[in-house]
Structure formats: C-alpha cells, structure tokens
Amino acid sequence: MPTSPRRLPIFRVPECTDCGACCFNTHLDYVRVFACDAALLAAEQLDALTVVHDGLRYMRFVDGRCIALSLDAATGRVGCRIYPVRPDVCRSLVRGTGECRSQIEAKWSRREEAFARLRAGDPGPEPES
Ligand code: SF4
Ligand code: SF4
Q1: What is the model's pLDDT at position 7?
Q2: For ligand 2, what atom is nearest to the CA of residue 30?
Q3: Which domain holds residue 47?
Q4: Which of 48, 62, 67, 102 lies 20 to 30 Å (CA to CA) from residue 2?
Q5: How many domains is the chain partitioned into structurally?
Q6: Is residue 80 lining ligand 2, measured as CB closer than 6 Å?
C-alpha cells in the first residue's frame, strides 16, 4: 500500500544535541518555571537562570536564546546546562513531533546565526552557574 504523502517525513529531525531550535525565543514568557520546576533548582540557579515577571517565574532568555543553552563552536553541538532538572515545559516537547518540526522550521536560522556570532568571537550570554 503506498504511503500517504502526508505521512512522508519532510526532513530528517536531528538529534537534540545537534539542534536546540526550541531553546531559541525572544518572548519573556516562553518557558514557564512552575513551583515544581523551581523546587529542583538551587537558589543560585534560580537567581542566575530565571526571572520573575508579574509574579510568575520563567527561564531567562538573553540574546534570543535560553541562558541555560550552551553552544559548542568547535563541534556545532548544543546542550542544556540543567538538562536533568529542566522545566516541565521543556520535557513536554518531544523530539520528532509536529511541534518539534515546527520549531526547527521556524528557528533553525537563529541557531545558525548564534553559531556564526560565536565563531566570530562573540561568546554571547553565559550563566553564572
Ligand atoms: S526537541 Fe526538536 S526542536 Fe527541540 S532540540 Fe530536539 S530536535 Fe530540536
Ligand atoms: S531549560 Fe534547557 S531545554 Fe529548556 S529552553 Fe532552556 S536550554 Fe532549552
């Protein structure tokens, strides 16, 4: 039976460590840090990596990306500095889903621009933790 075109993969989804697209954003309220998420972070991490706006806590975004996202210019790989205790919102985005693909389509260029700046000598934001 032929496969429906709607089911054909549009592009190969990279490994998350070769991507990081969903960790780019410019909106203050992109990644909510709920009380259950905050309970997993040390006080110093909360201060360095999160912000409180109108009484609600969010991951801090600097220069268009989450401050917990690390970029390795040498390898082109990315990582979440708090991966084992990342917020529930981050855990809920499953690699390979439609939402994941939408994130890649919308933001891959931001990842490439960030790497280009890094390789040009601009290290971008670095958390204190
Ligand atoms: S979940 Fe999807 S968009 Fe996010 S880093 Fe992984 S592959 Fe990229
Ligand atoms: S906490 Fe980690 S997984 Fe979530 S947006 Fe930031 S870098 Fe990405």
Answers
A1: 57
A2: 5
A3: 12-119
A4: 102
A5: 1
A6: yes
> Which residue has its alpha carbon closest to ligand 2 atom 7?
69
Of the candidates 8, 31, 12, the residue with the CA atom closest to the CA atom of residue 80:
31
Predicted confidence (pLDDT) per residue in 58-94, tens digit? 999 999 999 999 999 999 999 999 999 999 999 999 9
Residue 104: CB atoms within 10 A of its CB come to 19
Q: How far is the CA of 120 from the centre of ligand 2 (A)?
A: 24
In a domain, 5, yes or no: no
Span 12-46, pLDDT tens digits? 999 999 999 999 999 989 999 999 999 999 999 99
Q: Residue 98 corresponds to which tokens in the numbers above?
A: 């439609």
| pLDDT value of residue 122 | 78
The bound ligand whose nearest atom lies closest to the alpha carbon of 49 is 2
Q: How far is CA 107 from CA 25, 34, 41, 57, 95, in A?
A: 8, 25, 27, 24, 15
State the ligand closest to the CA atom of 22: 1
